[in-house]
Design a protein that fits this description.
With 377 residues, the chain is α/β, with parallel strands linked by helices. The chain has helices at 14-23, 57-71, 97-107, 120-125, 148-161, 204-210, 275-288, 337-348, 355-359, and strands at 3-4, 7-10, 29-32, 49-50, 83-85, 88-92, 115-117, 136-140, 144-146, 165-167, 174-178, 181-186, 189-193, 195-198, 219-229, 239-242, 248-252, 255-259, 264-265, 298-306, 313-316, 323-327. It folds into two domains: 3-62 and 148-218 and 309-374, FAD/NAD(P)-binding domain (3-Layer(bba) Sandwich), CATH 3.50.50.60; 88-141 and 219-306, D-Amino Acid Oxidase, Chain A, domain 2 (2-Layer Sandwich).
Length: 377
């Protein structure tokens, strides 16, 4: 006998848990997670940074639409601050200065605090930059670090306070539609609900196929990160990347977190770092700065799942009744989680996007799984 709910959410990462939190305002929610603990894959391996200058137009709008939640979460969500000051700096050499100027132009209206910096100001912000290589930067002083663990726990507290259920070790092995409800078969038993939210991360196309949906063209990409010992106090340094996204580094406790911004296509998996990508991370850092790496004490990899227009896929499937997508968050899933969850709830219930997201220039068609950019051809 299947346990009955109003909504089943497949996936216990940040996307699934935040959507479950929002949808629990409307009925009984069960979150089904295939692993034995939550947030094992993309969520647990995030760079934990909130940048309104990062991503394409819809992603920037979703990020801006999430800041208010993170700054002032609802009562009972947390007793700890979710954000802490960081800043972000995007660099260009002479060859890519035009791209940096376009970034500056494109983000100023949405993020008026961004500034164009060059010369000695670059060295003041990041004293280790390689002399003579970088000609200018775009500085986002309002970028902040996110306490990902506390955000996830806040969503779980709220979900459970409204009677929501979270089941781990519950990989969905089969789906069928019967009597106006989805029935999900898992090792933890059967669960049923009229509404099924597919928040399965890199596995979302596989879950969609079990429900009889066409694929959205999800492309899981492996990204590598390392930490190195910092030779100086880096606590006040911003997140640093070049405008072409060949590398980034940011303070991580008393170390530096470094990534070569690799995007290697892989099958959905528990991603592991490749030695070549680790070597590239070290090389990129040493060419960008005066730092030299003696050892790499920690390395890991995670999956960032995109569709071809690199915009999240959110909303009801155009052909399969009762199936809602929340997928393809790419590298933006943490910073956009509050707005994406609210958008998912509104679209799942047949409503328009929340007014504050519309005011930021976001359109539902930019997110929906039936949008033209995802159609074959």
């Amino acid at each position: 006998m299947a346990r009955a709910f109003d909504v089943l959410v497949v996936g216990g990462g940040m996307g699934g848990v935040s959507a479950g939190f929002e949808l629990s305002f409307d009925g009984a929610v069960a979150v089904l997670e295939r692993e034995d603990q939550l947030a094992v894959h993309a969520t647990g391996r995030s760079a934990a940074i909130f940048m309104e200058t990062y991503g394409n137009g819809p992603v920037r709008a979703l990020t801006s639409g999430s800041r208010g939640f993170y700054q002032s979460p609802p009562p009972g969500f947390t007793e700890e601050p979710l954000l802490s000051p960081r800043g972000a700096l995007f660099l260009s050499d002479a060859e890519h200065e035009a791209e940096l100027r376009e970034l500056h132009r494109s983000v100023r209206q949405l993020v008026p605090s961004v500034t164009w910096v060059e010369g000695g100001e670059l060295e003041r912000l990041v004293p280790c930059l390689a002399p003579g290589r970088w000609v200018a930067g775009v500085h986002e002083p309002g970028a902040v670090d996110i306490d990902v663990h506390e955000v996830l726990q806040g969503y779980l507290r709220g979900l459970r306070a409204r009677g929501g259920t979270v089941v781990t070790g519950a990989e969905v092995q089969a789906l069928r539609r019967e009597g106006g409800a989805w029935i999900a078969t898992t090792p933890a038993g059967q669960f049923s609900a009229p509404l099924l939210v597919n928040a399965a991360g890199a596995w979302a196309d596989r879950v969609g196929a079990m429900a009889g949906a066409r694929p959205i063209g999800l492309n899981p990409l492996r990204r590598t990160a390392i930490t190195i010992d910092a030779p100086m106090d880096v606590s006040r340094w911003p997140f640093v990347s070049d405008v072409t996204e060949q590398f980034y580094f940011k303070p991580d406790a008393r170390r530096l977190l470094v990534s070569p911004c690799d995007e290697t296509p892989v099958e959905p998996c528990n991603a592991a770092p490749d030695d070549y990508d680790v070597a590239v991370a070290v090389d990129q850092l040493e060419r960008a700065t005066t730092l030299r790496v003696a050892s790499v004490p920690h390395r890991w990899a995670g999956l960032r799942s995109f569709v071809k227009d690199r915009t999240p896929v959110v909303g009801p499937d155009p052909e399969v009744e009762g199936l809602v997508w929340l997928a393809a968050q790419g590298g933006y899933g943490i910073q956009t989680a509050p707005a994406l969850a609210r958008a998912c709830r509104a679209l799942a219930l047949g409503q328009g996007l929340p007014g504050d997201l519309l005011a930021l220039g976001l359109e539902a068609m930019a997110l929906l799984p039936g949008r033209p950019a995802l159609r074959p051809g």
